[in-house]
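Supplementary Methods. Inverse-folding protocol.

Structures were first reduced to a discrete structure-token string of length 129. This string, shown here, constituted the complete conditioning input.
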């Protein structure tokens, strides 16, 4: 039963991490597209089409957009899994409890809330198949 809960918690954490990563990536890509849209709108104006100001703006902005795009694409790469380690939930919990054992009563309340949240998450996470 504990192993099932541990796996459910791991799966829920993975899904949450994927969701958060996707939201950040969407935000970054949206910002890049908005920057490109503004440059295209400025370039499309008839009276500015060949101006020195437009050329200077493009020369300044394209390297910035290229850098931001490279950074965004680098975030899409799979992180190095070699540094990942997994420990059983009980081991993690015991280490956390030991590290906060001498703290004030507010730490006890925090541990209680964390324990309750962990149990709730384990019981509501969908089982993996």
């Amino acid at each position: 039963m504990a192993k099932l809960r541990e796996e459910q918690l791991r799966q829920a954490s993975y899904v949450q991490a994927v969701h958060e990563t996707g939201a950040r990536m969407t935000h970054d890509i949206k910002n890049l597209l908005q920057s490109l849209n503004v440059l295209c709108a400025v370039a499309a104006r008839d009276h500015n089409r060949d101006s020195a100001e437009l050329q200077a703006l493009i020369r300044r902005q394209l390297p910035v957009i290229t850098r931001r795009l490279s950074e965004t694409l680098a975030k899409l790469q799979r992180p190095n899994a070699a540094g990942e380690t997994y420990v059983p939930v009980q081991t993690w919990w015991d280490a956390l409890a030991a590290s906060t054992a001498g703290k004030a009563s507010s730490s006890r309340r925090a541990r209680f809330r964390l324990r309750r949240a962990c149990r709730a998450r384990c019981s509501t996470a969908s089982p993996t198949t």
